[in-house]
Every structure is written in structure tokens, then in C-alpha cells.
Amino acid sequence: MAGDKIVETTGLLGWMDRRFPVTATWKAHLSEYYAPKNFNFWYFFGSLALLVLVIQILTGIFLVMHYKPDAARAFESVEYIMREVPWGWLVRYMHSTGASMFFVVVYLHMLRGLFYGSYRKPRELVWIFGVAIFLCLMGEAFFGYLLPWGQMSYWGAQVIVNLFSAIPFIGPELSIWIRGDYVVSDATLNRFFSFHVIAIPLVLVGLVAAHLVALHEVGSNNPDGVEIKDGPKDKYGRPADGIPFHPFYTVHDIMGVAGFLIIFAAIVFFAPEMGGYFLEFNNFIPADALKTPPHIAPVWYFTPFYSMLRATTDEFTWVLAGAAVLAAVALFVRGGLKGLWRVAIPAVLIVVAVLLRVIDAKFWGVVAMGGAVVILFFLPWLDHSPVKSIRYRPTWHKCFYGVFIVNFLIMGYLGTQPPSDAFNLMSQAGTLIYLGFFLLMPVWSRMGTFKPVPARVTFHAH
Question: Where are the transmembrane segments (predicted)?
């Protein structure tokens, strides 16, 4: 676009443009996509997530060339890749490190969305696609975790698949269907391989494309939570507080990519196991169905949710049931509810209390673990704050976010440790803090004194 005049391309590019929107796509998503000019450090992680996705796909292709999805040969094929295939060790370590770094950048990317309200109107669908990507990543990581066919792979898959048997009525048959056998076996390895290599990557790539298209349709959020499309425009109708994504943010992101690749390379070459957190030591031992490791724990990025699973014991369901009954009585007697709600909500709480005691605690552990992720889909409708960004929220709101982050990290650590009474009590408290943060958000998010939001983005050249 030069002023108001449309410049037509010529030559080979012009021939392509008349048959496929190369230039139009470039302009719509890069050179003429106007993003807020006040992006900061937190905006590196979206592009870094895309970079790691590319790394995982490329290294995965080379690994599949030599990997054997056969229970008798899987572990040996991984050893063959590591010892015999030229540069196979590098490709394998890039893939294993990439899996963990994927979750690092995605967790930070989601945290940025939480800080700056990137899930609020009009970006609800962008956030929903993002959470769906997160769910797919968890599935992709879980299915890929079995493939090395080491001790922790085998027994970790055994524990997680057995959780489905806790679902009332259909649980036992469902767990057999997932495994393809009565125990984790060659059939399990084959179906996990097909999901890891074909099914989920196809869904993942589609969701990433939808995420980006939805984002570019409504525009990017910014640290101030100000909509630049609603602000002043220049004479060409472009946002005055926006700058073209290319070249400004492509250069900005290249700097982030350079820093990331330095860290990534340092891990790959000097600490690919990362002390047993990225690659567990038990996974360098071939799977043995007759020898259970002393302590079975998932990879670090699953451990916060694994802590919630372990925290939901029979005693804990008694506590939750009692709390539900007390809440029902309080709402009925002094809750301020009127009409049908005065009876309906306490009745639902009583039913929940009864179900907590009737159904096995393991099932509620699965519900807590799954609900901790599913609740993220509803975040756009749980947050009732009058402002988007954390910058303009009360100070005690920031303390809530801080407690939430620290609690999540502690839960992650507890999930890596052998169970004990003290750790179990801490996990139960952490589970209540995590779920309470979201379930009580409609109440606490609207409370306090909020700072005035500027009419335009605040920007300081650097």
C-alpha cells in the first residue's frame, strides 16, 4: 500500500498473486498488520512457541526415520539413534529439550495473557484456541512420553491410563480401549505412536493457524489493555498507536529468538537431562513389567496437576463435602439469594456433597486434575474486573497473582517428590488455592479501587 494507491505486483510474484494471495497474506499478517507499539519482554513467547513447534516437527521427522514402534525394539532403536545414527544424539536431545522448552514458553505465554487480560473481549476465541492448543500439547507430550519404552515411560503410562478406570460405569472398559490391551503393551505403543506422530500434530497445526487468524482479526492486546483500533487513526485509517509487525516486531522477535537459542543450545549440549527433570534417569533403563520403580512421577510440566490428583484422598473428600454442606446452609439462611435461587443453589451443593462421598476419591482426583485445565476455557467469563491489565488493578490483586504463581510452582515441586503426609497436606491446600483463584474470580476481580486506564497506550522509546 502506497498512500491510497494499490500497487500491483509483476513478474513471477504477480503471476503467483493472481492465483494465490501471497502478497495479500504477507500484508495482512506482517507488513500491514498494525500491532501496539508498546510490546515488552512478555511478547516474545508467542513467536518462541511457534519456533519450538517447528523444531519439534523437524526433529520428530528425523527421529521417526529410525524409531521402531515395537515393544521389543523401541528402546533399542532409541539407543541406535543415540549411538549409531550420525548426529542422532543431537536430534534426540533437541527433541527432548524442545518438549520441555515448549511448555516453558507456553506457560509464560499464558501467564502474560493472564497478566494483561488477553482473554477479555474481543479476544475470547483467541484464548479458547490457545487453551485448546495447551490441551493438545499435554496430549502430545503424554503420548510421546511412552515412546522411548524406558522404565518411567512404561510405568508412567500405566499409572495415567489406569486413572480412567476410576470413571463410573465406563472406566474399566475405557482404560482397556485406550491401552488396546489389559496392560500397557505393544498395542499401546503403536496407538500412542500414531497419535503422537500423525493425529495430534495435525490438530495442533490447525489450532495454531486458527489462533493466529483469530488474533489478527481482532488485533493484539498490549500491556495497557487499550484497544488501538478504537483510538486515533492516521490519514490512511491506520491506528496511530500501532506499528507494522514487519519489520519492527520481526526484528524484535529475532532478538528474543537469539536469546532463546543460546539457552536452548546450552541445555542441549551441557545438560540435556537437566538433573532428571527433562529426561528421568529411570528412562535410560529398558521397560520391565515385573520391576516397578520406587517412585513414579510424570515429567515436570505435568507435576502441578499430578499433585492435585494425589491430593484428592478419601479424607480430603470429607473436608470438601463438609464445606459444601456448610456453604449450602449459609446460602439458604443468610446468603441473600432470592426466589428459586435460594433453594436451587444450596440443593446443588448438597448433591455435590453426597456425590463426593458416594463416588470413589480417585475419580474426584481425576476431576480435579482435568478441571484445573478445563476451567481455563471459562476465564473470559470469570473475570469481572472493569480493567484488563494488571497495571491498573489494585495492589492486592497483584498479590493474588503472585500467590497463584508461587502456589503453582510449589505444586509442581510437590508432584516430583515421593508422597508423604506433610506434602499431601500442602498439595491439598495448593489445590484449593488454585481452584479458588478461578472459582472466586467473579467476586474478587471486581473488588478494590482501580486506577484510571489511559485513553492511549503508554510508550517509552528504548
Answer: 41-65, 99-119, 125-147, 159-180, 192-215, 254-272, 316-333, 340-359, 365-383, 395-416, 422-441
Cross-strand partners of 309: none
Q: List the grid coordinates of 243.
A: 506499528
**Residue 109 among known ligand-binding residues:** yes
The C-alpha atoms of residue 252 and residue 239 are separated, in whole angstroms, by 20
39 Cβ neighbours under 8 A, 6+ residues apart = 220, 222, 223, 249, 252
**CATH for 24-296 (1.20.810.10, 1.10.150.120, 3.90.320.10, 3.40.50.800):** 1.20.810.10
Q: Is 216 annotated as a binding residue?
A: yes
Reported as a single tens digit per residue, the pLDDT across 13-24 is 899 988 999 998
Residue 54, Cα to own-chain centre: how many angstroms? Answer: 17
Question: Are the CB atoms for 311 and 430 separated by under 8 Å?
Answer: yes
- Domain ranges in the chain are 24-296, 300-449
Select from 270, 300, 254 the least CA-distant residue to 51.
254
Spell out the residues 6+ positions from residue 439 whose beta carbon is closer than 8 angstroms to its own: 375, 382
Contact predicate 145/153, CB 8 Å: yes
Topology agreement, domain 24-296 and domain 300-449: yes
211 is an annotated ligand-binding site residue: yes
- Please enumerate in sequence order all residues whose Cβ is within 8 A of that of 312, keeping only pairs 6 or more positions apart, or say none: 361, 362, 364, 365, 367, 368, 431
CB 365 within 8 A of CB 308: yes
**pLDDT tens digits, residue range 184-220?**
999 999 999 999 999 999 999 999 999 999 999 999 9
Q: How far apart are CA 9 and CA 15, in angstroms?
A: 8
Task: Establish whether 462 is an annotated binding residue.
Answer: no
pTM, two decimals, is 0.93
CATH class of 300-449: mainly alpha
* Residue 4 main-chain phi, psi, to 5 deg: -100, 5
pLDDT of residue 461: 66
Please tell me whether 196 is known to bind a ligand. Answer: yes
Mean pLDDT confidence for 393-398: 95
